[in-house]
Amino acid sequence: MSYDSNNQQQPASEASYIFDSESAGEMARLMHQGQLLTRTMGGVFAGIDEADVEQWRQVIDLGCGPGDWVLDVAFEYPTVEVAGVDISRIMVDYANARARTQQLVNASFEVMDIREPLDFPDETFDMVNARYLFAVLRGEEWTTFLKECMRILRPGGILRLTEPIDLGLSSSPALERLSSWFFRLLKQNGYCFSADATSVGLTHKLPRLLREVGCQNIQQTGHCLDFSGDTDAWKALYRDLEVIFTTAQPLFVKAGIATAEEAAEQYQQMLIELHADDFCAVWHYVSMYGRKL
């Protein structure tokens, strides 16, 4: 499936993503994160009735990054055409290259800004999927985005959103401090609905926003990933946090949240504490499903 898009990629200074969407390091981080999310959730369509999936012919992932979810769906369901869109040219090119290498002719990717009207006809897709847009869409952009999701969704189709509650609750004081700074950074830049910047600040608001755009039969599924030091997930989450807080340090300084010295000190301390023999941590996130009637 291929769609032509006239949308042009914006310069990094105008892009909405709080991190650099053209960074190779960020692409690698998102690739590992996406694989971990899918595995922890229990599969690409976990929580969705198989009777629905059997009828689907076209699905889309918005803000697809390097395309892991799209490629997994295309491989597992060869009769389903799967599209992915992202603002990052480097990620879209990489995802298309992976689709060709894996000979997944039912997967396609386009550069598109999900903050703008989507370049698809009404009622195109049986499912609209989106994951971890908390650092992509600012608070005032969510309603417009969700209306577009509903517009391109077919009657009877499903919209699924997956978003984090935290960056992990852990035994590391430095990780806790860095996480609190990150929440402040999100709030200062308008990315969340948190009242006091003590969480990602999004999952409590999404059910109401979904209802307001006409989504029906809304359900929520919570996920809890243990990435303590003695688990298989530790290495992947260690890499994830390493990239996040390397990238975030200059942002903390620019926002006046911490000095460069404070940010560097807490980052190094976090790495030490994550390697402790008794390090314990869990990461919480939520999937929300709604239907267009």
TrEMBL record:
InterPro entries: Methyltransf_25, SAM-dependent_MTases_sf. One of its GO terms (molecular function) is methyltransferase activity. Residues 59-157 form the Methyltransferase domain. This is Methyltransferase domain-containing protein. It comes from Reticulibacter mediterranei.
